[in-house]
Amino acid sequence: MKNQDPKLKQLPKVAVLRLSAIGDVVLCASMVLNLVKSREFEVSWITTNQTKELLGEIDGVEFIIVPKPKNVRTFLECRDILKNREFDCLLLAQASFSAHFVTMNVRSKRKIGFDPSRSRDLHRFFINECIGEKEEHFVDAYFNFAASIKLKKPDLVDWGGLFMNDDEGSLGNLNLPEGKHIMAVHPCSSKSERNWTIVSYANVIDHAKAMGIEVILTGGGGSGEIAFNRQIMAMCKNTPINLVGQVTLSELPYLMRKVDVLVAPDTGVVHIARAVGTPVVGLYAVANPVLTGPYKAVGYSINKYHDALDIYCAIDKTSFHQRVHNSKAMELITVDEVTDKIDMIIKKLSLN
Length: 352
What we know:
Layout: E1 13-17, H1 22-38, E2 42-47, H2 49-55, E3 61-65, H3 72-82, E4 86-92, H4 97-103, E5 107-113, E6 129-130, H5 138-147, E7 182-185, H6 198-210, E8 214-217, H7 223-235, E9 241-242, H8 252-258, E10 261-265, H9 268-275, E11 280-284, H10 289-292, E12 302-303, H11 305-312, H12 335-351
């Protein structure tokens, strides 16, 4: 959707380049929204169809949809889409080969990217400026891109302006229970090492059901994810509602808004829930929640990251961005720790 305000044509043209995954685009979206709210820039977002499907239209943002470059054909498609465009500034908010291939087709006077500590895949060769080096949450890093073009970070970071569609699609057909608290469990991350154990998920679900909380399972339609969730259901004494593969990407934020609490490992749905104000019990051992947890809302999350570093990492224990690549790391999280957090959230909701 192109900006319609003719005054915007006189403003500096800023392009943000951040392709999917879904968690990253939600984290980046708060900064993009702030660019628009400042009314100081003409804002374009160069991204993929998945981002547009998730976020929908954003007033004041022109989405430039490109294919994710995988081969010569898609690279040439990107070139054709971008060849007549020129920007005053490109915020290259992604350090990956796929984003860099798109960047090669972007004409811009300034190309601002990550600092060396967060650079990957030859990132420095595709930029001529970088943000300052700092240990910070991804959201704060994205706002440092805005700071590089003299836009101050707001006192309150939020996602106001996203997920404003009154039409919630087919959610009404899901027959969600009325008059009961609902807990969503999203068991699978994009990498299996981030997933908690099947038996632990089942025990947490049984605990919630025993408290009178309705439980729904959510997830994508991939065969591995479906199989993982089926194993959880088979182990539950009280079967949850299985919505795995039944909720579209565009409907997911509205579903997260309807539930009272989300239990999930390090995955994009955590950030969707945070954006719509739903409490998250995040499960962290592989990744640092200070870096990638629900932004300024980690009070209900379980943090075993430093324990996992001590046990499973022989080097780089002090690195803020280090990941723990061991399938047993998530087993450090206990069922009792998670159920205690769920109890706290439900008690608070009941008092309110």
